[in-house]
Amino acid sequence: MKGSIMLLSTCIAIIASDYARIVRYAERRSRFLDALDWSQMTPEFCRRTSMADEWVNDETAEAWLYLQHLDSRLAREGDGPIEMFARFVIPPHLLLAAVPA
């Protein structure tokens, strides 16, 4: 899969925005889930929610690590062209994963 060619600083700005979006999503999701009465939820809902939690945690960590890698690369190499492959996007099915059926 081909990525887009851009300056490293532009790539960092895009990934920082992706990271911030996931963090905001995680915070809103956490507040929503904290307000639920879990004793009223189905086992399937709990399973889907747990899987979504895992995705959010993994994706947040990966975005942070990628951002750190790009920052260190900028310090080491300067602001040259880079082919960006990674984007961190919340899949639509996870936006619905925390809504009981």
Helicity range: 55-70%
Major sheet, described briefly?
2 strands, antiparallel
Radius of gyration of CA atoms, rounded to a whole number: 17 Å
Spans of at least 5 consecutive residues whose pLDDT stays below 50 are none
- Number of beta strands: 2
- Number of helical elements: 3
Shape: elongated
Structural class computed from helices and strand pairing: mainly alpha
Strand order of the largest sheet: 1-2
Mean pLDDT: 87
Strand proportion: 5-15%
Q: What oligomeric state do these chains adopt?
A: single chain
Order of helices and strands: EHHEH
Cα(first) to Cα(last) distance is 36 Å
Textual characterization of the structure:
- The chain has a two-stranded antiparallel sheet.
- α1 packs antiparallel against α2 (43-77).
- With 101 residues, the protein is mainly α.
- It starts with a strand and ends with a helix.
- The longest helix has 35 residues, at 43-77.
- Helix content is 67%, strand content 8%.
- The radius of gyration is 17 Å and the shape is elongated.
- The protein has helices at residues 8-34, 43-77, 92-97; strands spanning 4-7, 81-84.
